[in-house]
Amino acid sequence: KIVLGIETSCDDTGIAIMDESGRIISETLITHSQLVADWGGVHPHEISKAHKKTLDGAIEETINKSNLQTSDIDAIAVTNGPGLMSCLRTGVEAAQQLSQRTNIPLISVHHLEAHLLIARGLSKESSNLQFPFLVLLASGGHCVIVEANGIGDYKFIGGTLDDSIGEAFDKIARLLNLDVSVNSGGHEIERIVKLHDGDPKQFKFPIPMMGPKRSEISFSFSGLKSSALWQVRKLENSTINNKELNLLVMNQKNKSQNPKLNLSTKVVADLAASFQSTAIAHLVDKTDIALKKCKQNRNIKDLVVCGGVAANMLLRDEMQTLCNKHNFNLHLPPIKYCTDNGVMVAWAGLEKLKSGLATSDVTLKPRWPLFEYTINTSQDA
Ligand code: ATP
Ligand code: FE
Hints:
The chain is an alpha/beta fold. It has helices spanning 33-39, 44-66, 85-102, 111-122, 165-175, 185-195, 222-235, 242-250, 265-297, 313-326, 342-355; strands at 2-7, 12-19, 24-31, 75-81, 106-110, 133-138, 143-150, 153-159, 302-306, 329-331. It comes from Acrasis kona.
């Protein structure tokens, strides 16, 4: 089987053609980072316009590069949720048009399921990864631990009480005035730490939820973000105004640039390193509890860490250490396929075809929790 995948749920236009062995036949990825940087966040209207502008060309290019005829393609998989309504709509409409034109059936793909299933398609030990397994999804919009029991069958274990971890990385990158016009904030935080030898011990930010809530499996990043903001302003000998605190805490989009920081590059790298190591220590602390619980209750032996933040090398290393401690197998998608892409959507489509659980209902679902999502077993794709 061969599937074409279309991903437009957020700020990346991703198209790919893949076969059921996990071979990527061709792929195209267009990121709209410059627009995100210009608007101080993902502006749905602007980004959906960018998807619209690039999508048809990207689909055509991907099909051309594959050297296949459209008649060789068995299905078109498209992300129909969760994500930004106008962005999802662009992808779904393009998929519907292509489907009508070519008579190729559609397959609905849940964006988060695509993030986690790609670990079965492309991680090093992918062939060994069978259900059930535990998943830490650390992305731009989510920070959640789920138990994966089968395609479309996920149980909620714990999630974030405020921001996702990716959002926290993005906001701190903006606070530190990093250039996010080419790559994401998370990517830039990791880069500046490496490039300027950022010292995570230079600033002590408290690891979230180490008090009475220590044993709870939930995440929180608002305290850590505020600590970072206070530290930055203290170093600059300036005070925080309420507007700024609101921006950091509430994720309001504004087009204005942050004020230029009066800090040396080394201090910025130290701040970035301290933030990064604390945020990741928090993920490790909570995943540790989830793994312990898992060992007691069920015989799960595999952990998938996925979503954009799973591209982070420190997180990958720390999760490997944690899995060694608990005797778990760690499954990480290749770095390139942690953030949004068309390949994971094509792969999710293939998984659904193989399991007989593909559905062609691509109704837009901007809010669509993974653990509430159960497969409708009518097989119509
Ligand atoms: P969701 O998948 O929850 O709907 P999304 O699709 O916007 O959200 P992803 O593409 O999965 O998110 O991930 C993007 C996030 O990953 C961004 O917040 C970005 O800062 C973060 N990220 C990317 N690379 C890295 C990295 N190397 N280190 C830390 N964070 C990173
Ligand atoms: Fe995503």
